[in-house]
Amino acid sequence: MAEFKIVISDPGTGKTSQKEVKDDDAKKFMGLKIGDKLKAPFLEASSPEVEITGGSDYCGFPMRKDVLGTGRKRVLIVSGVGTRNKQRGIKKRKTVCGNTVHSRISQINVRVVTDKKAPKKEKKAKPAEKETKKPQEKEAPKKNPEKKEEKK
After folding, report:
1. What are the C-alpha distances in Å from 18 to residues 28, 33, 60?
2. Alpha helices (runs of H) in the chain, residue ranges in sequence order
3. SS3 content of the chain, % helix, strand, coil (to 5)
4. How many CB atoms lie within 10 A of CB 62?
5. Which of 25, 59, 126, 128 could lock onto 21 through a cystine, CB 3.0 to 4.6 A?
6. Cβ–Cβ under 8 Å, residues 70 and 102
């Protein structure tokens, strides 16, 4: 049976949590692609809707959005997922996993989707600080370039 580790990130709070799903809950992720949205109340996140943002297979190869299918492929990468380029413009051939969730995926990264229509929480206003007189800062005297008198 399928078994996944789900890494749930919540951009509203900035926190991340992990949950392991098996059997029936895991089947709901099968066949979905990176970028797909899913209602998953069983993840116990702050919002029931999540979006798949990536993952990795059982050997640690990362899923890449622009590689179609479920298998691994060796692709020529300039930047993005699966590369750590130190120099600009270097192209490398790397093995990455396709963008579709299948039984050999071990970790799925998801992001909690928040309603953009909902009002944002207002930040608490800081209490007004007491006005204190600061000593006036004196500017350093500017040097005037002395004109050298020409010798006659």
Report:
1. 17, 20, 17
2. 23-27
3. 5, 35, 60
4. 19
5. 25
6. yes
Tokens of 96: 């990455």
Residue with tokens 């392991």: 20
Whole-prediction pTM value? 0.69
How do residues 63-111 score in pLDDT, each as one tens digit? 999 899 888 999 888 888 878 877 888 888 989 999 999 989 999 999 9
Listed residue (42, 82, 51, 85) closest to 66, CA to CA: 82
pLDDT of residue 52: 93
Per DSSP, which regions of the chain are E strands? 3-10, 15-22, 37-39, 49-57, 72-77, 92-97, 105-112
Distance CA 72, CA 57 (A): 9
